[in-house]
Design a protein that fits this description.
It is built from 21 helices and 27 strands. By secondary structure, the protein is α+β, with helices and mostly antiparallel strands.
């Protein structure tokens, strides 16, 4: 057979072969295409769901941190308000118009504004709505408003609400734009007003304390954080549905500005009813996904109940809570989700097209299976690396301890804090990295984990390798083996800044602003502690002679310098263990333990001599001499209270004043024979 014949015989068979292939390809590809469409459709739905869940989980950390930051900021304002209203100078000034108290209050208000940069205005308002003192703050400049420029706030909303308050209650206004003389202040100043009554020792209401908290920096911090998010569309909404913060700034403050009536429900009408009626949740709409949560600024649920928060004795009214029932909303538009989706990338679309246009269904399925397997492996590796990176470089510290407190595992963040290598920490007892005063707290913390599944908010002081120390808030969850405590998984947050703030607030509350020594409140706290543990107590009451003459002749600034010099001189000659305080005006008090009446009297005589011979320079041109009159008293009975001892010392001081001044008299000299 020739080649031509062979070719002619095979030609029909070849045509049938390709005809069968084409027929099989047609129906197999149709079935495959349908199956692929179903598979890809399902995969797309699942992938999109996972992507949405992942994006929402990333936003959850921001929601939690933002909620905590806002609540901590509001709690800080309550602590500061409580500290200020404890000052006796408030009731003294409101009752008597005491100039010394007024000067102290004005300095206190200015110091608060300059220190915290948070207070636009601080006011004292009498019962008729008249401003008694007002401090204005603007761009690091704080000043007291002149008397002629003070206003009447009787018809203001916050005065009407504040006048109804009882002792210990606080009214907090909604966050709104500040209004001056009937006009919204430009540039806009969003403020929250804290109002609480001033009560004297008789329980009488004398007026109101009003602190305007300037919210500009708080909102700017929120916006800055939102710029770092995937979508950048984060919103703070007031209880009426107006925006306090929005990625589109032109929509903000519809509740304060008459020319803006835009509300959240105007832009998202289908989403608002659900968001408005629920505390938190996730809502999918045609436009995208909303993650929302109610932020209650005066709740402690998100920040832990530390000692500082428990010390707040002020009660925020229900109206105030309703005024500030904010909503935090994060919006993920569909466009943003698609930008993150594999299926909308060029490669993803090419892959789908290639699947449908593939000529070999079986080969394509094999390749698809292989690709899916490799993709899954890459995804698993990526997730593993991400989890490892999240653990090692988290903004908080993590470590695991066994039941004896031995470190089993620790992340890189905490190692960076400590300054040790991992080898230097693993296997060591965690108390080796604590200061001496925190080891007992840690032992109690570890013991508590033997019984409780979790322990939160324990404050420890960490000792670094270089000697530096800092404070952390520690929380732990116990892991049981056969019903017994075996391992503690622990997280730590650096709270050094918070501790320093609390110490600063304590210093402000306990220190006389002018002289730097203890104030009246702190003196009584210290004195009562001494009376509990010491039996022999001596009290010296001191008063500057003719001090009014110094103010009249040289002015109050020189008078202040004289008071500072008196305090400085007393500190230089008194033993460190005595208590020295300024009770008010030119009156000082000294309390000494283990000092007999005779030694206390000799000490008072020494003070008179030293002060008489210590000239005080006035304006660098002349010197004046200040003398002191002193009354001393000794504790008579163990159950005698400090007020009784002070009263006898004050009688002796009065006797020293009326018999010539510049002398010391013992209370025993005044007792009848």
């Amino acid at each position: 057979m020739t080649l031509t014949q062979l070719s002619a015989e095979l030609q029909p068979k070849k045509e049938v072969f390709w005809d069968n292939i084409f027929k099989r390809f047609a129906w197999m590809y149709a079935i495959t295409a349908i199956l692929l469409a179903l598979i890809i459709g399902y995969a797309y739905q699942q992938y999109t769901q996972n992507l949405e869940d992942k994006m929402l989980s990333q936003e959850q950390a921001f929601v939690s941190s933002t909620t905590q930051a806002l609540q901590q900021e509001m709690q800080t304002q309550l602590k500061i308000l409580q500290m200020v209203t404890r000052s006796k100078a408030l009731s003294s000034f409101m009752e008597n118009g005491d100039p010394t108290s007024q000067q102290g209050l004005e300095k206190l208000f200015i110091n608060l504004a300059i220190t915290f940069h948070r207070y636009d205005q601080i006011r004292l308002i009498d019962m008729q709505g008249n401003e008694a003192i007002r401090m204005n703050y603007h761009t690091d400049d704080a000043h007291i408003v002149a008397t002629k420029n003070l206003q009447n706030k009787h018809y203001s909303k916050y005065f009407q609400e504040g006048i109804k308050l009882s002792k210990g209650q606080v009214y907090v206004s909604p966050m709104e734009l500040n209004v001056e003389y009937g006009e919204i202040e430009i540039p806009y100043k969003p403020v929250v007003r804290f109002v609480t009554p001033i009560i004297n020792d008789k329980g009488e209401k004398l007026g109101l304390m009003v602190m305007n908290y300037l919210s500009t920096e708080l909102l700017q911090n929120f916006r800055d954080q939102m710029e770092l998010r995937i979508s950048g569309q984060g919103m703070l909404i007031d209880p009426d549905g107006h925006w306090m913060s929005n990625h589109d700034r032109s929509n903000e403050w519809g509740g304060s500005l008459e020319d803006i009536d835009q509300k959240f429900e105007n832009l998202y009408p289908s989403a608002w009813p659900m968001i408005d009626s629920n505390e938190e949740g996730i809502l999918k709409s045609k436009k995208g996904i909303f993650r929302y949560v109610s932020i209650k600024p005066f709740s402690l649920n998100s920040i832990g109940k530390y000692v500082a928060e428990q010390d707040i004795n002020l009660s925020v009214t229900q109206q105030s809570i309703a005024n500030n029932d904010w909503k935090l909303v994060i919006f993920l538009p569909n466009e943003t989700i698609r930008e993150q989706s594999f299926f909308f990338t060029t490669f993803g679309q090419f892959t789908v097209t290639f699947i449908f246009l593939g000529s070999a269904a079986i080969l394509f399925l094999i390749l698809l299976s292989s690709e899916q397997k490799r993709r899954q492996q890459r995804q698993d590796l990526l997730i593993k690396n991400e989890l490892s990176d999240l653990y090692e470089n988290s903004p908080c510290g993590y470590h695991s301890l066994d039941k004896h407190g031995i470190v089993l595992k620790i992340n890189q963040t905490e190692l960076n804090w400590l300054g040790y290598s991992r080898q230097e920490v693993i296997g060591k007892h965690f108390s080796d990295f604590l200061t001496a005063k925190s080891t007992g707290v840690f032992d109690a913390f570890l013991a508590q984990l033997q019984h409780d599944k979790s322990v939160e908010g324990v404050v420890l002081e960490i000792q670094c390798k270089n000697g530096h120390t800092f404070f952390v808030s520690t929380s732990a969850t116990s892991i049981l083996e056969k019903g017994h405590f075996a391992i503690a998984r622990t997280s730590t947050f650096d709270i050094t800044d918070r501790i320093k703030l609390e110490e600063r607030l304590a210093y402000i509350a306990n220190t006389d602003v002018l002289t730097g020594i203890s104030n009246r409140r702190h003196f009584f706290l210290q004195a009562n502690e001494r009376l509990k543990k010491d039996t022999e107590i001596s009290v010296l009451m001191l008063d500057a002679d003719h001090f009014k003459r110094v103010n009249d002749v040289y002015g109050h600034d020189v008078g202040d310098d004289v008071l500072k010099m008196i305090a400085s001189t007393l500190r230089s000659i008194l033993p460190k263990e005595v208590i020295l305080a300024r009770l008010g005006g030119e009156e000082f008090v000294i309390l000494a333990s283990d000092l007999s009446a005779e030694k206390a009297f000799k000490l008072s005589q020494k003070i008179c001599i030293v002060m008489e011979n210590t000239p005080i320079s006035v304006n660098n041109k002349a010197d004046i001499n200040i003398t002191l009159s002193i009354g001393t008293a000794q504790r008579i009975a163990y159950d005698e209270e400090i007020d009784e001892i002070l009263k006898r010392a004050d009688i002796a001081l009065y006797q020293a004043k009326t018999t010539g001044r510049n002398k010391a008299i013992q209370s025993s000299e005044l007792l009848p024979i």
